[in-house]
Amino acid sequence: MPARPLLAVHDLAVTFTQRRRRDVRAVDGISFSLGEGSVVGLVGESGCGKSVTSLALMGLLPPRGVQVSGRALFRPGGGDAEVDLLSLPTRRMRDLRGRELAMVFQDPLSSLNPVVPIGRQVTEILVRHRGLKGAAARSAAAELLERVGIPDPRRRLSEYPHELSGGMRQRALIAMAVACRPRLMIADEPTTALDVTIQAQILELLKELVTEEGTALLMITHDLGVVAGLCDEINVLYAGRVVEGAPRHDLFRAPTHPYTSGLLRSIPRLDAPRDEPLTPIRGTVNDAIEWADGCAFAPRCDNYAEDCLGGPPDMREERTGHRFRCVHPVHGRAPGVPEPTATQGGDR
Amino acid sequence: MAARTQRIDRLAELTAARREEAEGRGVWREAFARMSRNPMAITGAAVVAVFIVVAVLGDLIAPYGPTEQNWGDEVFPNRNVFVGPRAENWLGLDNLGRDQFSRMVIGARQTLMVGVVAAGLGFTAGALLGGVSGAAYALGGAAGRRVDTVLMRVVDMMLALPSLLLAVSIAALLGQGLVTVMVAVGTAQVPIFARLLRGAMIAQGGRDYVLAARALGARRRRIALAHILPNSMGPILVQLTLSLATAIIDAAALSYLGLGNPDPSVPEWGTMLADAQRFLSGAPQLAVYPALAIIVTALGFTLMGEALRESLDPRLRK
Amino acid sequence: MLRFIVRRVLQAVPTLFGLSILLFIWVRSLPGGPAYALLPENATAEQREALRRAMGLDDPVIVQYGAFLGRLAQGDLGESLQTGRPVMTEFAMKFPATVELAVMAMVIAVAVGVPLGYLAARRRGGALDALVVGGSLVGICTPVFFLAFVLKLVFAEHLGIFPSAFRQTPGIDATRITGLFVVDGIATREWDAAWDALMHLVLPGLALSSIPLAVIVRMTRAGVIEVLGEDYVRTAEAKGLHRRTVRGRHVLRNAMLPVVTAIGLLSGALLAGAVLTESVFAFGGIGQFIYSATQTRDYPVLLGFILIIAAVYVAINLLVDISYSLLDPRVRVR
Questions:
Q1: CATH code for B27-69+91-316?
Q2: Which value does ipTM take for this structure?
Q3: Interface touch B11/A299, C-beta < 8 Å
Q4: Whether residue A263 sits in one domain with residue A337
Q5: Quick one: A158 and A194 in the same domain?
Q6: Would the pLDDT of B77 be above 70?
Q7: Residue from the list B7, B15, B318 with its beta carbon closest to the beta carbon of A287
Q8: pLDDT of A192 strictly over 70
Q9: 8-state DSSP, A321
Q10: What is the pTM (predicted TM-score) of this model?
Q11: Structural Rg of chain C based on CA atoms
Q12: Disruptive mutation site among B295, B304, B309, B318 for chain C (greatest number of C CBs within 10 Å)
């Protein structure tokens, strides 16, 4: 990892404000960083603030009713100059988006404009950022579609999103994301809406693209299986905060936060004895308490003790690069939790 | 041990606040609760309430009879000068020397009747047509679809005429009169209700809970009446509220076309407005009062309808 | 695409056919029957009897309906009791005026409604939004004929800015080609005549546009608000496209789809509203003629005009459906 990361997020917080309603703090001070060409995962259940984090970094949160604070320092073009994505003027943000920063969304059907041909949706980004025109743009678009594994790309250019299969749509969206060889790509649950066999193909494609182009990837998912085969580093989110962050092997071998360890134990495993029950985490995300009152995970935690309610626990660092936010951490190797073999694709 | 109980209580307390927000209530109760906070709905309801009170208690409020030409001698000699508002006649006199305020107050009742009867007629006939059609389509298999096709062809025919022209042709058939206006305006609303209810029922018919009920062997009639219908009422109830406004406006248009109420002893806003057009340049107030009354009343119903639509819209729920 | 068009045309046929049956029944159920309805009120009993025989009212109903359809196929809808001219001729003479008026109203409604609805949606919850939403509700709730009267009183009679009646200043020397006066004026380069006709269109056009305007504003606003929340708009923003491109290609284009359907349905409201507006401004189109037909119980005109209007209305909605399928590729499949 270079001395300075490509993207360094410090204390990112997002609060949704609405008249006559209580403010909702969706992201509550998230910090993490991402090196040039690396793959970092943000993992958590729905409602933990992972999607909001990605939208905040892209500057895509609605302009009103949202308060964003913190810093997200990004080095465009991988150079020395740093910009803060959270405070950059809209005009400059528009120049970065699509060219330096790209994003792949969860639902490929609703993320494509239903009444504009696929080709047009690919060429418009080439026209905007690479200054291509007419036939040149079309053939560049066809090349891109071919690159992401869409057969017969010339014909696909004039087709509409509803004429493509789910996997093809997601490939088309990825083609748009890599069109300008961005430095950083954010993928928000890119495989959740797809069939399992297609999921593996899409992950394989993403991995291939980031390796070949040297693009850094921020992978946002609820699926530990997805990050297992893909990410160099993993950050686990709970109720708007990072509760544990570590290199992949570290995290899977020695989960320190009870939440992470619980997540790992709730994954069904082929090699486990058949009569061994799965151990899901108790309760739901709605059982969280405010961080100000104590650890938000306390109501669902097995290691819960009284001092868990003494205000927000600090982030601690044990070993290099293994951070966690817990008063009563799980120590050593979690019982019966070897690193899951990657369900999608091999090792990176 | 005591410490542990305390801790659990504290946790329960902290989680309870979150739980309350996440819990849902019944759709209608929730819709009503949301409406009672919506200024649009409150304004609309207030206007409608005033309108209904005036319509019901008109005889008690009106200081004079609607047909008494008490001040005829003040008007007849100089037909183009009308008496404006004054202490004894709050809204002045009409072209025949009758008290305009009393006529407006008494007129509210007829206007309400026209609106309610016409909208009710359109609602009942349309809901019947659309309900049978929708139930047949959703539950009746191939035969049901044929029933639906035939019924919808009839509805399409009615929709092939602009509603006011449909009303005009019905009115021409029945001759001039208040009943004509109600029937004509009501009939013109039928296809809208039919289409809306059918569409909603077909949409509901495809939902999982209906499949579940069928899989459990519930009878079709019961599924239609107990499951599909109640969940499909939203759009047509919204339309019913909006129709009350449309009916009052369309009735005024029919009156203007000379198809309205010919009986001068029963004042009605639409007829008053239509009649007053003749004196518009000399005495605009004669037209302005009934026009404003119609606009405000229609606005009241429309506001309520829109607020109801908003509060039932699942996309707007938070 | 062609199959789609053919199928939609074929679907319209039974509707119109059924309508002709309804209207046939309608005429036969008129008070006193058609023989009474088709004659002036002071006609003698012998005249009625003669007409009954002439119309074949003593034949079986099916035969009568067949004869009615036969005449219909030849474009014979009887004669107007007011003018004595064939109904078809009357319609052909008066239709251009109504077309010109309806087009004017629709142009006003779209030209004002779409931008206003768009701005209201962008500034949702602001003062402009409240004004637009409130204004459109008032517009829907105002009787068209009253609005027409007020416009005429204020802008024609008091201020004298616009003419108060007719399609053109009486006595103006203009060449007629299509019957659309503005178009004729431009085609023959008689600019004065075109301008004069346009001025005559302003007030009735405004009055007639009130309801379509209100509806289009509301639909545009609702459409834009909905589309702004769509994932594909977020995708477009994520691509860093210019604001212009995002709004034009991704937001407006999708938001306009329901408005296109509404324009078809609103054409019906325009034809009906023309009855009210034209009579206020003595505009001389089919609307005014229907008005006078209801006053004089001119049943052949009512029957014939309503049938033709239904056909026109169905044809307009057919065109709208077809143009909708050009705009939205998803409908073409089914």
A1: 1.10.3720.10
A2: 0.85
A3: yes
A4: yes
A5: no
A6: no
A7: B15
A8: yes
A9: T
A10: 0.84
A11: 24
A12: B295
